[in-house]
């Protein structure tokens, strides 16, 4: 499939310090991608570089087969034809909703701007709101207006910088899914910057995990969860606990909770010290099991309860039980390990000083 956007080994610097280094990825038409990472990892700088607000010190950015950024050259943001949705919505308080949407449509008649605004308001589920002003709207409604404005000139790519971070959790999740549906229906590609993995997984076809200005893994949400490229990605994505273990065959490890066999083969020799990642869904309730653990914490999740369990060794693990399987703190519960998809990492050796 044709590539819409390419970042090729880009580097961005602030005061001679590289904040984005050797970073590359491609976006195809209609793809929804997310840059996910902790504050300061460089994800917003990447978005600003794509938009044309940050110069490159190395590499290039190619949009529609045209180089738009390279060292010494940055095509102006307004000439890139991109849509943008900001964290603070950036709506003009003195313009009504139709005026805010139409602001992006320079050169069109007042009647045409109104027609497009009405059409987009229906698309984002706010039909009849054209005459309202930003202060009359909720946060979620303002974000929909910001999206409608970004869609107004029919861009092939929209950039979104933490667009839902000012909203409460339930609204953020619901609006994220609605935005995904709208973009997919319109066939418009998007890049979302976020620190929220649930948001990234709900919206993104592809997700890039960033750390210290680099992408550690660019992959589907499924693969990031089940096939993490390194320990940081494994620890950053989802919930889980690492237990020390010893490799006894390419696809089996010996742990304090017994031998675990999986469907992945590792190249290290038998006896290698490893760490095994056990996620809450890998540890299942089993009343007939000889392996028991003490309930030290619990969090009701509706359909499930997330238990923190203390193993006989003192180490703690997480486990999801059905919500009707309710146990008090201090109770001993039977568990078994169901971790066919074995995720292990060679343990880093600590050298003696």
Automatic annotation (TrEMBL):
InterPro entries: AAA+_ATPase, ABC_SmlMolc_Importer, ABC_transporter-like_ATP-bd, ABC_transporter-like_CS, ABC_transpr_FbpC, Mo/tungstate-bd_C_term_dom, P-loop_NTPase, Transp-assoc_OB_typ2
Ranges of residues in domain ABC transporter: 5-237
Protein name stated in the entry: ABC transporter domain-containing protein
Any one GO cellular component localisation term in the record: ATP-binding cassette (ABC) transporter complex
Coiled coil: none
Classification via CDD domains: ABC_Carb_Solutes_like (cd03259)
Molecular function via GO: ABC-type ferric iron transporter activity; ATP binding; ATP hydrolysis activity
SUPFAM superfamilies: MOP-like, P-loop containing nucleoside triphosphate hydrolases
UniProt keyword terms in alphabetical order: ATP-binding, Cell membrane, Ion transport, Iron, Iron transport, Membrane, Nucleotide-binding, Transport
Source species, domain of life: Bacteria
Gene Ontology BP term (one): quaternary ammonium group transport
Species in which this protein is naturally found: Candidatus Tenderia electrophaga
Record bears the keyword DNA-binding: no
């Amino acid at each position: 499939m044709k590539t819409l956007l390419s970042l090729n080994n880009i580097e961005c610097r602030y005061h001679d310090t590289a904040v984005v280094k050797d970073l590359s990825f491609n976006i195809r038409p209609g793809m929804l991608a997310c840059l996910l990472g902790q504050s300061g990892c460089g994800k917003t700088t990447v978005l600003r570089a794509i938009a044309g607000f940050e110069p490159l010190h190395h590499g290039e950015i190619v949009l529609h087969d045209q180089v738009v950024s390279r060292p010494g050259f940055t095509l102006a943001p307004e000439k890139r034809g991109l849509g943008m949705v900001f964290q603070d919505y950036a709506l003009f308080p003195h313009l009504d909703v139709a005026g805010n949407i139409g602001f992006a449509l320079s050169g069109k008649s007042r009647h045409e701007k109104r027609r497009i605004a009405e059409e987009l308001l229906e698309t984002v589920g706010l039909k009849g709101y054209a005459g309202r002003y930003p202060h009359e709207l909720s946060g979620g409604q303002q974000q929909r207006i910001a999206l409608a404005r970004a869609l107004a000139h029919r861009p092939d790519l929209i950039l979104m910088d933490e667009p839902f971070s000012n909203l409460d959790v339930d609204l953020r999740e619901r609006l994220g899914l609605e935005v995904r549906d709208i973009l997919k229906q319109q066939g418009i590609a998007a890049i979302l910057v976020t620190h929220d993995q649930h948001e990234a997984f709900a919206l993104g076809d592809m997700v890039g995990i960033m750390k210290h200005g680099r992408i550690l893994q660019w992959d589907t949400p499924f693969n990031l969860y089940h096939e993490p490229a390194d320990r940081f990605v494994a620890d950053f994505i989802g919930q889980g606990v690492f237990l020390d273990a010893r490799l006894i065959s390419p696809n089996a490890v010996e742990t304090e909770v017994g031998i675990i066999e999986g469907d992945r083969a590792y190249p290290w020799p038998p006896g290698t010290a490893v760490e095994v990642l056990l996620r809450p869904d890998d540890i299942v309730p089993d009343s007939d099991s000889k392996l028991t653990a003490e309930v030290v914490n619990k969090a009701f999740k509706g359909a499930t309860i997330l238990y923190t369990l203390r193993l006989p060794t003192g180490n703690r693990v997480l486990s999801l039980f059905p919500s009707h399987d309710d146990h008090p703190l201090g109770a001993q519960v039977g568990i078994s390990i169901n971790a066919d998809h074995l995720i292990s990492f060679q343990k880093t050796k600590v050298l003696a000083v």
